[in-house]
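SAMPLE LOG
Freezer: B-3
Tube label: C17
Construct: single chain, 201 aa
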Amino acid sequence: LSKKYNVELENIVFDWYIEHPLFNNDIYSENQKLNRLKFLIECSAKTGFKRIIFPLLENNNIDSEERKTKFFKIANKIKKLLQKYDIEMHLETSLNPNDERNILKKLDCKWFKICFDMGNSASFGFEPEFELSKIKEFLGTIHIKDRILGGESVPLGKGNVDFKTVFDIIKKSKINVPYSFQVYRNKSSDNLKVLQESVNF
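STRUCTURE (predicted):
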């Protein structure tokens, strides 16, 4: 389909792990989820995706030492797989910028990077210049999104993201990574209209 319609496959987001957190058993065991992750990495690479966005937030957060320890064990198991298929995994987290930086330094692997979601950052109350200065060297992708401080996603311009400041910092810092729209929509949204309005914004 990507060849037929001339649509490049860039990023794929594994949000399934928000519903079924990697770090505990639900209807799937932790081992089943790890095997699924390995299978999805292989499928994504063979399909042509260049980057996997992996959420470490909401139900799948790593805000405890126990979960961080589990994550590092899992990361070490999939490093060779990412290298084999030449596909990067970009971590989208709810951690503060210092913790994100420390995790990427500890991983010490070019196949892991950070996904900066400007909507999540604003919702968590992080200051963009400080955050981007801390994660710049590990940054892999940027999500364009708007959210309310401490609240949900909203259409661009309706939340707390200071887009001019964020893009000024990105330009000043000479950050050059791919962007993705991850803008608010729901089941009744006209997706083409949402995309057109987002591009215009």
